[in-house]
UniProtKB/TrEMBL annotation:
It comes from the Bacteria. It is an enzyme of class 2 (transferase). This is Aminotransferase. It comes from Winogradskyella psychrotolerans RS-3. It holds the Pfam family Aminotran_1_2. Residues 31-389 form the Aminotransferase class I/classII large domain.
Length: 394
């Protein structure tokens, strides 16, 4: 008999991690799988950051840190927010967590009561809906279109708002679509939200630096949104530090205090060595990571060119992050190599089994017609993967 709680029984397994596990299984059977499913830079953490961690170990940073992070790290975050985002935060407004994922889980836990609705423009990052559900919130999906670059319009936002709406969560640059909201597009959303003062905003900016056109804008930069916006960021993507597990928020101080209280009962402060290393990462000029962004930009051109040569892949032009999110619905209903493809999950599985390429179904991101392909892989692997996909489908 299943003795587990309804909470865990109702929780979906992360689709990106599930696909990675399936790819690992096939590799163990000796299959040569190319993994384009994970949202993880394939670079190493820069040496100057690793050196800072080694120094912290030698300086005996081994005790519990303050729950919300070392003051020196919070100061570096405040300077970063000012330098890169024109945002003014004070120490009590900043909380350091074990990855942006924990920052988001804290926010859901401290902001949501049972039945509170959270608007998620689709496609959204895979964990948003389950993090919201874990805190008894109700995700409300808003379908966007590839024609509008997968961005939610002001009209769509307004139509989704109900008396139960508590929050809206989005990422820009977006995982999985790569879309970046312009200042004008965010202003249009803010003009709607102005009419609903009890709705709070999560602006997830973890891909901020992986932006190919520039012009990153934070919702909290608008004076009339500042008191209602929680700015989420972290070092996983920009600094190739996924395993170090450091994320952070800048928020109204009452929300930050609540996150601090929550974290104090669940995990305490984030890893002390990683925190010291992140001080060095954030104090560095963002130009120190430009070589990675330049490489991602080249790969984006490569993968878009290669995909344009395959029938039935319709893509937008991602302006940031390291994913393409092609609409592959023209394959639905077709049978290829004896396998019938009825939806994006079938298609992604077909690519894994017949092309030996791991991708992720769009269903995990709230979109039934697309798949996500990560180009955080070498140009050689990208080229070979798309060649295999083309062959398998032809
Ligand atoms: C949009 C988005 N937000 C948050 C996260 C979580 O990042 P972290 O590694 O800091 O927990 C990810 C990771 O994939 C992401 O893509």
């Amino acid at each position: 008999m299943n003795q587990l709680s309804d909470r865990i029984n109702n929780l979906a397994t992360s689709a990106t991690l599930a696909m990675a596990a399936k790819a690992r299984e096939l590799r163990a059977e000796g299959k040569d799988i190319i993994g384009l499913s994970l949202g993880e830079p394939d670079f190493n953490t820069p040496d100057f950051i690793k050196d800072a961690a080694i120094e912290a170990i030698n300086q005996n940073y081994n005790s519990y840190s303050p729950v919300d992070g070392y003051v020196e790290l919070k100061e570096a975050i405040i300077t970063k927010f000012k330098r890169d985002n024109n945002l003014n935060y004070t120490l009590p407004q900043v909380v350091v967590s074990t990855g942006a994922k924990q920052s988001l889980a804290n926010i859901a836990a401290v902001m949501l009561n049972p039945g509170d609705e959270v608007i998620l423009p689709c496609p959204y990052w895979v964990s948003y809906s389950d993090i919201v559900k874990l805190s008894d919130g109700v995700p409300v999906e808003v379908q966007t279109s590839i024609e509008n670059d997968f961005k939610m319009t002001a009209e769509q936002l307004e139509a989704a708002i109900t008396p139960k709406t508590k929050m809206i969560w989005y990422s820009s640059p977006c995982n999985p679509s790569g879309s970046v909201y312009s200042k004008a597009e965010l202003r249009a959303l803010a003009d709607v939200l102005k009419k609903y003062p009890n709705i709070y905003i999560v602006s997830d900016e973890i891909y901020e630096h992986i932006n190919f056109k520039g012009g990153h804008f934070s919702m909290a930069e608008f004076d009339d949104m500042y008191d209602r916006t929680i700015t989420v960021n972290g070092v996983s993507k920009a600094f190739a530090m996924t395993g170090w597990r450091i994320g952070y928020i800048g928020a109204p101080d009452w929300i930050a205090r609540a996150c601090n209280k929550m974290q104090g009962q669940i995990t305490s402060g984030a890893n002390c060595i990683a925190q010291r290393a992140v001080i060095t990462a954030l104090e560095a000029d963002p130009s120190s990571i430009k070589y990675m962004v330049d490489e991602f930009k080249e790969r984006r051109s490569l993968i878009l060119n290669l995909l344009s040569e395959i029938d039935g892949f319709k893509t937008n032009e991602p302006e940031g992050a390291f994913y393409v999110f092609p609409n592959i619905s023209s394959y639905f209903g077709k049978t290829i190599k004896g396998k019938t493809i009825n939806n994006a999950s079938d298609f992604s599985l077909f690519l894994l089994e017949e092309a030996l390429v791991a991708t992720v179904t769009g269903e995990a991101f709230g979109n039934k017609d697309c798949i996500r392909i990560s180009y955080a892989a070498s140009q050689k692997d990208i080229t070979e993967a798309i060649r295999r996909i083309k062959t398998a489908l032809s």
